[in-house]
Amino acid sequence: MRMFYVWLRMVLSLKIEMVFAIVFSCILIVYCSNPYAVNPAEFTLYTKYLIPIGVCVWLLVSLRLHLLITNSVPIDWIAINEIVESPKKIVANQISIAFLCFSILQMLIAGIIASAIIIAFSSGWDLFAFIFKLYLIYYALPFAWAWVTGLSISVVLCILFS
Questions:
Q1: Are 40 and 123 a contacting pair, CB within 8 Å?
Q2: Where does residue 45 rank: exposed (0-12), middle (13-18), buried (19+ CB within 10 A)?
Q3: Low-confidence ranges of the chain (pLDDT < 70)
């Protein structure tokens, strides 16, 4: 339960970044779920300009979140006083939980877009699976790359300014 309050405090300090991520995700869902498209996979053509914007948004969110995570646990101080046996494990767990939440969000967005497209085209599960995979390859991979890049930059910044 205490971990929930730590996460809640971190998320509340990321207000503007979370607003950017939510607004971008909503715009992405609306544009990708275009019911006026001729081809179900046509959303990749109409929304290709959203990839660099999404990379910047997720890089910013990841950078700020991971800066908060790595600065929230004073690893050197904890290691000196031996309060916790492995303080780096705490930070690694927090980072992995953040990436898991990001991955779940990307899967939810892919499911929403694929569901909207199969409803618009009155198709079956084959199209759902195709659109789901297409979203994960076309969008989620660059966004995951931006997430890991933000993590790497935040770790380097923490090392340089500690």
A1: yes
A2: exposed
A3: 1-8, 10-11, 73-87, 162
CA distances from 24 to 30, 95, 111 (A): 10, 22, 16
Among residues of the chain, what percentage have pLDDT more than 70? 83
Position 132 scores a pLDDT of 92
Q: Give exposure, 124-153, as e/b (b: 16+ Cβ within 10 Å).
A: eeebbebbbebbbebbbeebbebbeebbee
Query: Helices 87-121 and 141-160 meet at what angle, rounded to 10?
Result: 160
Measure the CA–CA gap between 105 and 136, rounded to whole angstroms. Answer: 11
Residue carrying the six token digits 């767990």: 93
On whether the CB atoms of residues 31 and 43 are closer than 8 A, the answer is yes
Determine what percent of the chain falls in helix, strand and coil, rounding each to the nearest 5.
85, 0, 15
Residues 6+ away with beta carbon under 8 Å from 124: 118
Whole-number Å distance between alpha carbons of 132 and 101: 18
pLDDT digits (tens, 9 = 90+) for 58-95: 999 998 888 888 777 665 555 555 555 666 777 788 88
